[in-house]
Amino acid sequence: MKNFLRICVPLIIFLLLIMTADSTADTIKLYQGTVLVGKIISEDKTSIVFANYFGIFRIKRIKIDDIYKTNSFAQDIAIHKKLNIPYNDKEIIIQYAAGQDKKEGRKLPKYEETKIQEEKKPEKEQVKPVVPEKKKEPEPEKKGVSDDHWTSGRLSFSGSFLYNLGSGNKILPYGYGGYFSLDQGLDFAPGNRHPGIPGLRFEGGYIYFKQSSFTLSGYVAGGGLMWALPSMKNSWGCFIIALLPGASLIEAKLNKSYFGIGVGKTSGINFTGQAIFGYQKSWGVFSLFLQARYMYIMGVNYYFDTIGGEFGFGFNAW
């Protein structure tokens, strides 16, 4: 019996509260998404005073998305359904009844801002005197090795087709060559790079000419200056020029007499001069090049004069 009274008495009081209260209620939707159910006590152009179970508080109109003035909690429930907002019937009844109760039981305009507090008004900004900024003098550029400088060493491999321009053209009109090269830039001086500063190239190779019964082959080596214009690291590539004096160890072999030359072979070390002109394109440390090669060998009973095309690749070794 006692348990029954504990349950029924509060329920009866709650129902009487609902019956005696003004049946009107209100639902407010804020921009931030919160939906409030209760009672609008008063309002003006800038704000409204709203009461519900949580207290009495002022809400600025700039925070309000929409206001629904209803005649009963059933209409508040219908609004929640329409807006697709989760709701509880009992909670809605409690909110609007508590709002009406607080409207009748408290004197205004003391408000309890328990949930929604008015935004703090920003303090007036202090106007600071404008002080003209001192123009910063440009700092002197620090001298150093720029990215355009050629200081690295490069290894390259190439093959060439050579055409004989010399007096032995009818005997040996063309041949082939293979080369291994080491290039070293010399742009170690600080400051801006000067295109006239060359690098060094050291090169070794092997040439081979054969026609009918006559063969000419041997090793060639040289070293000299090499220019990369405008720069070895230029984005669109560069032109290569190299002058390579050196020497060659050439062996000439004849299997039968030809134009008064007896059968046999001869070999010797001869002065050799080479010149290279070409175009090179680099991708990081890797590069491809296409160039023309001129080679002059003096001393194999007659001079040997050739020109040819060459293709190869290289990469930075350090």
Question: How is this fold's topology laid out?
Answer:
Elements: H1 2-20, E1 25-30, E2 35-43, E3 47-52, E4 55-60, E5 64-70, H2 73-82, H3 89-105, E6 153-164, E7 174-184, E8 199-211, E9 214-229, E10 238-254, E11 264-283, E12 286-298, E13 304-316
Antiparallel strand pairs: 1-2, 1-5, 2-3, 3-4, 6-7, 6-13, 7-8, 8-9, 9-10, 10-11, 11-12, 12-13
Low-confidence stretches: 12-23, 107-130, 142-146
User: Any idea what the shape is?
Assistant: rod-shaped
The CATH architecture of the largest domain can be given as Beta Barrel
Structural class: mainly beta
The biggest sheet, with number of strands, parallel, antiparallel or mixed sense and barrel status, is:
8 strands, antiparallel, barrel
> Which band does the percent of strand residues land in?
over 45%
Overall pLDDT level:
77
**Gap from first CA to last CA:** 99 Å
Radius of gyration: 50 Å
What's the count of strands?
13
Strand arrangement, largest sheet?
Answer: 6-7-8-9-10-11-12-13
Written as H for each helix and E for each strand, in order along the chain, the element string is HEEEEEHHEEEEEEEE
- Summed up, the domain count is 2
Q: Fraction of residues in helices?
A: 10-25%
CATH top level class name of the largest domain: Mainly Beta
The helix count comes to: 3
CATH topology of the largest domain: Porin
